[in-house]
Every structure is written in C-alpha cells, then in structure tokens.
Amino acid sequence: MNWIMRKSYINSSFLLVILALTAACNKSSEKTSRVDELPFYNDATFTPRWLIKGEVTDDFHQIPSFNLFNQYGAQITEENLNDKVTVVDFFFTVCPGICPKMTDNMLLVQDAFLKESDVQMLSYSVTPDYDSVAVLKEYADLKGIEKEKWHLLTGDRSVIYDLGRNHYFIEEDLGLEKDPEDFIHTENFVLIDQNRRIRGIYNGLNKSSVQQLIADVKTLMRS
Questions:
Q1: Among candidates 128, 209, 120, 194, which has minimal Cα distance to 161?
Q2: If we measure between CA atoms, which residue out of 163, 30, 180, 196 comes closest to residue 90?
C-alpha cells in the first residue's frame, strides 16, 4: 500500500470513528422517562398518585367539558382531548416576556411529534378579548404552527380561567385566593393523557424540562 493510499485509509478510518462516537453521544443524551408508567395528578399540589393494576380510576381528576374556538374558527371541546396525548399551555399573542420562549419550546414538541396523529398541543389565550380567531391565525402563520397539530384557543374568558386555575392547576401560588379578574401568567406546560387526566407539569422555559416532557409523551404513547 503506497503512502497516499495509506493516508486515505487512515483518514477514512478516523472519520468513521468520529461518526460512531457522535452517534453514541447523541443516543446517550436523549432523555427517557424516569419511570415506565407516569403518575396521575389530582389537585394543585401535584402530589403523584400511582395506578395500582386493576384499580378503578373513576375518582381520578379529569379535564371537564369546555367549548372554545381555534385559530381557524373551528370548535374545540373536551372531546378533542379523547384518545390523544395533549400538551397544554396558557399564553397571549402580544406577551413581551415569557410567551415567545414558551412558543419556541412548544415548537420543539410540535417538531418531535409532527407525524404522530395521536399527539397534539393546545394553547389557551389568557387575553381572549384581544386574541380573536383572526389574531390567532396571524400568530400561527407567523410562528409556523401546524393546523392539525396545535390549536390556539379563544372564547369565553371565564371558561379559560376556570380551566387554567381549577382543572389544569397551572399556577404555582398554592393556597392564595385568586380574584376571577386576576391575570393568569405562567410558564407551565401540562401533560394530559388519552383519558383527559393530568400526567405531568413542566417548566416551559427550560429546554431540559421540555425534553423530559417529550420523553414522557413517548411513554404515554406506549401505554
């Protein structure tokens, strides 16, 4: 083997080693769920409750009925949550603070499950009087939000705030009385299973937390 061929062989072998190490690192850095089965959460304390095999779950907290509209004017109700894994957050389109970062991280969730028809996202506007269907549609187009994957919701403010505070438990001020007119502003993402039950809460500003959410979605898809 002449010098040129030997050098080419060494370089090719070195490249293969680098590619193999890179692939191994990427695989090892991918988050997985911390448990094989996710717990259930029934109240704002987010105390985990584990399902015992054969246990009846009728008393587990479930997202109730609601009637809102997405960015295309389509009616969205609790029926849209049935048989799907759903990631939920609360936002508003003109938010100058945490919402843009939350939307960027929700896009990571959208991209991770773009081809999975049984995974969806719901973003409830906390300023529905301003965030009309037309405003939400413009926002969705600007952000690259996929029509069938991610619903931006508007409608009756009292319905949205009741859902956020009393059913998704998205605020962290436990034990503090909230006036119905108090503004909801939270960075939390909530994971809902195929039976409209809460299975996790995550910091929507933290990429590591969002990666854990993505891993937990995959766990629910296998259950």
A1: 128
A2: 163
